[in-house]
Design brief:
Blueprint (H helix, E strand, L loop, with lengths): L1 H16 L7 H5 L7 E6 L9 H8 L2 H4 L2 E6 L4 H9 L5 E5 H9 L4 E8 L4 E6 L14 E4 L3 H13 L8 E4 L4 H6 L5 E5 H10 L4 E5 L11 E6 H6 L1 H20 L1 H11 L5 H16 L10 H13 L9 H4 L3 H4 L3
Parallel strand pairs: 1-2, 1-3, 6-7, 6-8
Antiparallel strand pairs: 3-10, 4-10, 5-8, 5-9
Helix pairs in contact: 1-5, 3-11, 3-12, 9-13, 11-12, 12-13
Length: 335
């Protein structure tokens, strides 16, 4: 199955970089009269516990209830997800809230349609045995980053807020190999998703101490966002509504019964180690709602804080208005 998915994502990326000008709207135009509509969701990374609500919706037929035949694809990198949605070669993508904001700041048509989690997932992850009690303790140490600009912003913000000097850090680019590099001692810390990477290291037998971005000077913003494009949102509003409604049903199941969500995730992705899946989902549970009245909604104040963070860290040249960043139309339409 993984080989098939990787071939599929490769073909889509090639199409996004060139080829014909057909877009996902073709499939929408070809369906009518209650026929099933094909749609593609590109994940942010490998399937994991944060996606439990999506797989719950798949297992329970919620997408089919909305007339959607959903294909879920694993990207080779975050860049692939962003490119595919921008080129109209996939209907929906999942990305970190900062990455979606960066697309908008770069003049792309990206726009959020629902928030999977309400808080940032990123931060600095260290081994407890190293004795770091604060990000400031990383002065002069080696910190791994994936190579995307948002990682620098996370590292600089957390260390500066704690009273440290980011300029003193030995920053190394390690891609998505943070877990392996920390466990092997190649880095003293790395920027990663705490409920996923941090939990993986804990499960591997290496207790961690993590410093979350929004606890050290960073904004509270939706850590993972389902997004599409402004054009698709306008032209395929029925598809957007059906997808959001089905996905919300799945996450409401998980919130009400985490074990059911875990079972659905593992049924569709049996290669995920159950011990990790259980621990990681437990870490994600408080983040799915985090005080919102409606699962999946965007908070205007949080989006304004994210915009300020983007400008302050040279990730955007001007503020991004909340209604440009995302819409709550489809979440509200699911109530």
């Amino acid at each position: 199955m993984l080989a098939v998915l990787m071939l599929a994502i490769g073909a889509l990326v090639l199409a996004a970089c060139g080829g014909d000008d057909s877009t996902t709207s073709d499939s929408a135009d070809s369906t009518s009269g209650g026929e099933m509509q094909d749609a593609t969701l590109v994940l942010d990374f490998v399937p994991g516990p944060v996606h439990a609500g999506i797989y719950d919706a798949v297992v329970n037929g919620y997408y089919e209830d909305e007339g959607i035949n959903l294909e879920i694809i694993e990207p080779t990198s975050t860049a692939d997800t962003l490119k595919l949605i921008d080129a109209g070669k996939a209907n929906f993508g999942i990305a970190d809230g900062i990455d979606v904001a960066t697309q908008i700041a770069d003049g792309r048509g990206a726009k959020g349609i629902m928030a999977l989690v309400q808080r940032p997932l990123g931060g600095l992850i260290t081994l407890t045995e190293s004795g770091f009690d604060s990000p400031a303790d990383l002065d002069g140490k080696t910190v791994g980053v994936t190579g995307v600009p948002s990682d620098d912003a996370i590292m600089n913000t957390t260390i500066s807020d704690a009273g440290g000097d980011p300029a003193s850090v030995n920053k190394v680019t390690i891609g998505f190999n943070g877990v392996q590099n920390l466990e092997s001692g190649k880095v003293d810390a790395f920027t990663g998703f705490i409920p996923a990477d941090g939990v993986q290291i804990d499960v591997d037998g290496f207790p961690t101490t993590s410093f979350a971005l929004d606890e050290y000077g960073g904004p509270k913003y939706p850590g993972l966002v389902v997004f599409s494009t402004e054009d698709a949102i306008s032209s395929e509003s029925d598809l957007m509504q059906g997808f959001v409604s089905a996905t919300i049903r799945g996450y409401e199941d998980v919130i009400a019964d985490p074990q059911a969500g875990l079972d659905a995730l593992l049924e569709e992705n049996p290669a995920i180690p159950e011990k990790f899946a259980e621990a990681s989902l437990d870490a994600y549970m408080p983040l799915f709602e985090a005080g919102t009245d409606q699962y999946g909604s965007f908070n205007t104040d949080d989006l304004e804080s994210l915009s300020t963070f983007m400008v302050d860290n040279d990730l955007a040249t001007e503020p991004i208005a909340p209604d440009r960043y995302a819409t709550n139309e489809f979440v509200e339409g699911s109530e």
